[in-house]
């Protein structure tokens, strides 16, 4: 179970006890926001793409939408999302619980600038009913991100 992989990884940082296991589903941004009592944009959603060197995870704000041109300029490849039946094998988490923690070694994680409007965000923790509240520096550290990027459409 991938939440156990995340829990084990978080134990080394002393934050495993901060994982929230919810009574209801948090598999989508709207469901997670409802379960956590926050705005949908406050959810840190993780999108999975195939890059030139393997899977790429992009963590965006809940309402963030990837701009294909920005993605292509950043990664030098078309923004091709992984198919639902590929995600667990390639990333290590099933759709609905995809997160930037406890992923397979060949997966690259990036954080989108759209998250920077918040002091804390709520990413999933490997299951369809889990989350954790993290500051942006914590998200950057625990996700082992390769850095901040700007690939989302500007929200008006």
Description:
By secondary structure, this protein is an alpha/beta fold. Helix content is 26%, strand content 22%. It is built from five helices and eight strands; from the N terminus they run H-E-H-E-E-H-H-E-E-E-E-H-E. It has a six-stranded mixed β-sheet. The longest helix has 10 residues, at 2-11. It is globular, with a radius of gyration of 14 Å. It starts with a helix and ends in a 7-residue tail after the last strand. The mean pLDDT is 95.
Percent in strands:
15-25%
| Average of the residue pLDDT scores | 95
List low-pLDDT spans.
none
Helix amount, in percent?
A: 25-40%
Number of strands: 8
Outline: globular
Terminal CA distance reads 39 Å
Largest sheet: 6 strands, mixed
- Work out the radius of gyration: 14 Å
- Assembly state (oligomeric): single chain
Order of strands across the biggest sheet? 7-5-2-3-4-8
Number of helices: 5
Helix-strand string: HEHEEHHEEEEHE
- The structural class is alpha/beta
Keywords:
156 residues; six-stranded mixed β-sheet; two-stranded antiparallel sheet; 8 strands; 26% helix
Task: Write a compact overview of the structure shown.
The protein has helices at 2-11, 29-36, 68-75, 84-91, 136-142, and strands spanning 20-21, 43-51, 54-61, 108-112, 120-123, 130-131, 134-135, 148-149.
């Amino acid at each position: 179970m991938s939440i156990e992989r995340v829990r084990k990884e978080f134990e080394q940082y002393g934050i495993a006890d901060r994982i929230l296991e919810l009574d209801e589903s948090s598999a989508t941004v709207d469901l997670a926001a409802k379960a956590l009592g926050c705005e949908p944009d406050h959810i840190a959603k993780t999108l999975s793409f195939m890059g030139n060197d393997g899977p790429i995870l992009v963590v965006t704000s809940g309402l963030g939408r990837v701009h294909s041109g920005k993605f292509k300029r950043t990664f030098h490849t078309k923004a091709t999302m992984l198919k639902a039946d590929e995600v667990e094998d390639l990333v290590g988490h099933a759709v609905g619980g995809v997160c930037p923690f406890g992923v397979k070694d060949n997966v690259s994680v990036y954080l989108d600038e759209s998250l920077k409007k918040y002091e804390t965000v709520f990413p999933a923790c490997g299951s369809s009913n889990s989350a954790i509240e993290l500051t942006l520096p914590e998200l950057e550290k625990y996700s082992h991100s390769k850095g901040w990027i700007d690939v989302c459409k500007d929200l008006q």
